[in-house]
Amino acid sequence: MQAISVQQPWAFAIARGGKTVSNQRVPTAHRGRLLIHASMRVDLKACDSPLILAAGWDPRDPLATIGAVIATARLDDVCSDAVRGVPCACGPWADPDRHHWHLADVLPLPRPIVALGRPDPWEPKPSLVAEVETMLANTAALNPRP
Ligand SMILES: [Zn+2]
User: Fold this and answer.
1) What is the domain partition of the chain in residue ranges?
2) Taking ligand 1, which is a single-atom ion, which protein residues have CB atoms under 5 Å away?
3) pLDDT class for 146, splitting at 50, 70, 90?
């Protein structure tokens, strides 16, 4: 399991708004589950961007918080074309000069779990992973999918 710390409102856009590309400074060999952590810093300028508004940004939403894990996702692929100056088709969320981490199967947490993050991708403690998994399992039990 790996975790990434993402500034708000971008973390919210992953958890709730269909943002399926996370722009990271580094690539990773990790594939599979990933914790999405909202870092302590907020990208204030981004709060008015059309992309973020279209993603339904709502500062009153519990997942608009900072300093907490707010979702899990599955990391399917990493596109490094942009850092090599090669055009790619990663869509409107992809920034130039960044590795594009492609996320799927995003599960927003019913409530945030306070945790310390790091600027670079990090390895969450087993106790944190267990807390996230227990919360998601309880949510699935309460809301069974048809
Ligand atoms: Zn790309």
Assistant:
1) 2-142
2) 79, 81, 88, 90, 100
3) low
- From the CA of 103, how far away is ligand 1's center (Å)? 12
CA-nearest of 2, 71, 72 to 30 is: 2
Read off the pTM.
Answer: 0.94
CATH of 2-142, one of 1.10.443.10, 2.60.40.420, 2.40.170.20, 2.30.130.30: 2.30.130.30
C-alpha 101 – ligand 1 centre gap (Å): 8
Report DSSP state, residue 94.
P
Place of tokens 């944190």: 128
Give distance in angstroms: CA of 55 to centre of ligand 1: 20
Residues 15-65: tens digit of each pLDDT = 999 999 999 999 999 999 999 999 999 999 999 999 999 999 999 999 999
pLDDT of residue 52: 97
Instruction: Please tell me the distance between residue 143's alpha carbon and the centre of ligand 1 in angstroms.
Output: 35
* Angstrom distances, CA of residue 105 to CA of 15, 19, 35, 49: 10, 11, 12, 25
